[in-house]
Amino acid sequence: MVTAANVKSVITGSEENIPFVKIKYSGSYDLSKTFDCGQCFRWERVPDSPHEAEFVGVAFEKLLSVASDGNTITIYNTTLEDFWHIWLHYFALDEDYDAIDSELLSKCNEKVFRDAMMCGKGIRILHQDPWEAVCSFIISQNNNIPRIKKIINAMSKNLGKRIDCSGMEKHGASEDAYSFPTAGSIFAAGEKYLYDLKTGFRARYIIDAASKWESGELDPEYIKSIPELNSATEYLCKVKGIGKKVASCALLFGFERYDPFPIDVWMKRVLQKYFDKDFSPLSFGKYAGVAQQYLFDYERNLGNEAK
DNA sequence: AAACAGGCCTAAA
DNA sequence: TTTAGGCCTGTT
Fold it and tell me: How confident is the model at residue A118 (pLDDT cuts 50, 70, 90)?
């Protein structure tokens, strides 16, 4: 019962007591680019993995690792049921990126964009938990990725649920793992507690978001139901500490939409450098967010090659 | 050591 | 409506 276009086969097995799901997949899926493009903060590369690439992380209160070898993706420490219910969509294995790419090319045929798309082939936009996305991108402001990860780990360790990792040592889970804390537990902990976890001036923003999340003033299902991007953005901006950029990221990575086009310092640079003054990212259309990821990755890789 | 990091808030024109 | 300054912390 294969329901996703690019998933060719799914089998289960077990390796040293760790159950896995192995997916044969057509098309390109680049785990490294996907986890390294700044959309998520809880995945780490597994050192000395026998796979071409393997990452271990926590999502939806579960610890798992994902490995890729050619056109095979293996998810360790999961079940077939969770694969179909959670991971198929989380990893965007149910998405037809060839279709997305050709839609984007029909909207923009600039050479730089074609190059960026080629360079970023295999990047996937994950479908993360909405609360985790909101909270993570509040933390991301005026901050760098190592410290964002550090803060999120500290919050998880102190306020999340402990997750059993036994048997996952070979998959990079040497220490205990913890789920991303719920809005309720963050709100209960209070602003000073968060401040002491080095969140800095963002502590009160996180509390404001958690409080609105708890009270229902910030309702994820309602947000997902808003058809128009600007309305959804405005709605999220009710929270102190959420501005246009943070809202765009949260919507793109946690609320099931592809049209947000987060503009940060990198994207400002890209737009200035390669596009006409009157060019609007809106012209990328409904998959603008995917275009943003390609361009972002492209610009950052150019920087790395120059070093 | 001073500046910067995938911003946002606030005060002041 | 737009603009400057400040902000927690860690790293270079």
Answer: very high
